[in-house]
Write a structure and sequence with these properties.
Its EC number is 2.7.13.3. It holds the Pfam family HATPase_c. This is Sensor-like histidine kinase SenX3. The radius of gyration is 34 Å and the shape is elongated. It has 340 residues and is an alpha+beta fold. A five-stranded mixed β-sheet has the order 2-4-5-7-6. The protein is built from seven helices and seven strands, in the order ααααβαββαββαββ. Helix 5 packs parallel to helix 6. It folds into three domains: 101 residues; 67 residues, Helix Hairpins; 151 residues, 2-Layer Sandwich (Heat Shock Protein 90).
């Protein structure tokens, strides 16, 4: 019994020494990855076992041959244990990182959902209150002169149209976020899509004396779904017109780089604060008051337009970026180009 106690004590001291060294190593590496920590823990465990066996074998006065056999056996087991532990440790570390990223993504999505609900509630409540007030005024005969009645009717139609667009945008955004888009990809001449979008936004630009500039030729052909691409171009043009001051300029350009086609929409809005650039494509983001649209009847999407642009472009396997230029900002869309 006494011999067993001595053996246990010797092995314990050797294991504690290895464990202490491992603890010091873990403290020194506390800023490293999970994989490094798991590897150190495995090495510490296997090292403690090997040290205990080696100390006990030495204390038992084994012959050199027997001691060599024991140490070789322990070393082989240690190598296998470390290899298997390192392999599964990497998997465990990757799973832990993935789970943490998934939780963070879920938190962001949930926060975005709550913000969106609050924002939509506000954006619907405000026009609904106005609509109710105008409807009650017409119903009670508070206004009866033809000019005011006509103006009330016009405002009711404008606000109804705006809420319809808002609901349509919400539906489109929900399809994008749910991955329910069904794109019918084909070769789409970008010039035709831009021409139609310019024709649709020309009245709004003319009302504020904003010049719409675009080249007559040199438009690439892209691989895209035409209805969604038309929505992207239209949203970018509307966004540029809404934020460009009267007598400003909106310029549309396009080109091709290797197998990628790009479309750029530049305006003279005065630029976006650098701190806001990463958030421009977030749902319901409107930026500072100076960049808030002044009217509700300009065809705007009330903070969803650029989020829809990003979602549609990413669904096509492309990307969209924004940067400040000398007198405004420039949105650039990149999509796969078709062969010439």
């Amino acid at each position: 019994m006494r011999d067993l106690a001595l053996i246990f004590g010797a092995a314990l001291v050797a294991a504690l020494a290895v464990g202490l060294a491992g603890a010091v190593a873990l403290r020194a590496l506390r800023g490293r990855s999970i994989t490094v920590h798991i590897s150190v823990l495995l090495a510490m465990t296997v090292g403690a076992v090997a040290a205990g066996v080696a100390v006990v074998a030495e204390a038992m006065f084994l012959s050199p041959h027997d001691l060599e056999v024991v140490l070789t056996t322990v070393s082989a087991a240690a190598v296998v244990s470390l290899a298997v532990g390192w392999l599964f440790g990497r998997r465990l570390a990757a799973a832990a990182v993935w789970a943490d990223q998934a939780r963070e993504r879920e938190r962001r999505i949930e926060k975005g959902r709550r913000d969106l609900v609050a924002w939509v509630s506000h954006d619907l409540r405000t026009p609904l209150a106005g609509l109710r007030a105008m409807a009650e005024a017409l119903e009670d005969g508070v206004v009866d002169d033809p000019a005011t009645v006509a103006e009330y009717h016009r405002r009711i139609r404008v606000e109804t149209d705006r809420m319809t667009r808002l609901v349509d945008d919400l539906f489109e955004l929900s399809r994008i976020n749910a991955g329910a888009l069904r794109l019918s990809l084909s070769a789409v001449p970008l010039g035709d899509v831009v021409s139609d979008a310019l024709a649709g936004t020309a009245p709004l630009a003319a009302a504020r004396r904003i010049r719409l500039l675009a080249p007559e030729s040199g438009w690439p052909t892209v691989t895209a779904s035409e209805p969604e691409l038309a929505r992207v171009v239209g949203n970018l043009l509307l966004n540029a017109i809404r934020y460009t001051p009267d007598d400003g300029t909106v310029r549309v350009d396009a080109g091709r780089d290797a197998d990628t086609a790009w479309l750029a929409v530049a305006d003279t809005c005065g630029g976006i604060p650098e701190r806001d650039l990463p958030r421009v494509f977030d749902v319901a983001f409107r930026g500072e008051p100076a960049r808030t649209p002044r009217a509700a009847d300009d065809g705007g999407s009330g903070g969803l337009g650029l989020a829809i642009v990003r979602g549609l472009i990413e669904a096509h396997g492309g990307r969209v970026d924004v940067q400040n230029i000398s007198d405004g900002c420039r949105f650039v869309v990149r999509l796969p180009a078709t062969g010439t």
